[in-house]
Structure formats: structure tokens, C-alpha cells
Amino acid sequence: MTEGRIDPRYGDASATAPAWDDIARLLTDAQLYWIVTVRADGRPHAVPLVGVWHDGAFAFCTGADEQKQRNLDADLHVAVTTGNTGAGGWDAGRDVVVEGTAVRVTDPDDLQELADAWFEKYGDDWHFAVRGDEFVELSHSGGGTEGGARVYRVAADKAIAFGGDHGQTTYRF
């Protein structure tokens, strides 16, 4: 089990750190995430995307010609964020940043398991089939796509939770 450490510079050291299971549930239930990749020249690139928190890691997909993919070709380090502070303010919400290294998923069985997880979470809005070593979109908002999508998993090296009565809590893996 992963234990969080409250940073006393940014939170109440006497508070109880959120249980990792609560943070993992937030990551699982989120509908939208933001991913930050690094361009070849070192500039950050941030975009919203859908994904799944599955078996303790974040999974996402990207087309071969997308900026994310070009960035991953140069640097596999990423940060993924999600949360709900905007809706309820600092005291009511909780936001999470997961830092890690993206690893391409190419095994057909692993890809099928992730495609099933996407379908279970998003239904027909994001319905994928496995073709070779990538996803092919069966439906998205009423349409499909000809090209495939490469799938990546990001296991957390570090996660930081913000908000609530704890302030800032760091989890290391």
C-alpha cells in the first residue's frame, strides 16, 4: 500500500493524508485528464484527453501524427492531471498529478483488456477494437476514423494530490 506524505510547506502537517485508494478512485472515475509531454526542443505541450486508470496505471492513446506522439518519440516522461477543485474550490475538491514514463502497449491481449476498459467507462463514445499493435476507433461521437491509435501506459513514479484539508500530499512508488 502506498502511503502519502503531507508537505508541511503547502499543507497542514497535522492533517491526515488521503488514502491512496481514495486517490486511485479519483483517477479511475475521472472522465477527462490533461497530459503534459515534452517537445524535442524542451517546451511543454499540454492537451486534454480521455483515458483509463487500469491496474494501477494510466492508459491513453494517440495517433501517429499527433504532437503527443512526436513528443513521445523524443521523451517518454509525462505528467497526467485530473481533478475536481474547479467545481468546489480548494477545500471541497481534490486534484491529482501523476508523473511517470509512458510505455507503449503492443501485446494484443493487453490492448484488448484496455479497449474493454475504455468501453466499460465511456460506452460507445470511445469504442475501440484492436488491430495489430494499436487501437482502431469503432465510434466516437457518431463517427469512426481510418487511422489507428498507439496505446501507452504510465505507471506512477510519483503522484501529488492537492486540496481538501490536507493541502499537498505526495505519494512515491
Automatic annotation (TrEMBL):
SUPFAM superfamilies: FMN-binding split barrel (SSF50475). The keyword Oxidoreductase applies. GO terms for molecular function: pyridoxamine phosphate oxidase activity. Keywords: Oxidoreductase. InterPro entries: F420H2_bilvrd_red/Heme_oxyg, Pyridox_Oxase_N, Split_barrel_FMN-bd. Pfam families: PNPOx_N (PF01243). Its EC number is 1.-.-.-, 1.4.3.5. The keyword Oxidoreductase applies. Residues 21-125 form the Pyridoxamine 5'-phosphate oxidase N-terminal domain. Gene3D superfamilies: Electron Transport, Fmn-binding Protein, Chain A. This is Pyridoxamine 5'-phosphate oxidase family protein. It comes from Pseudonocardia charpentierae.
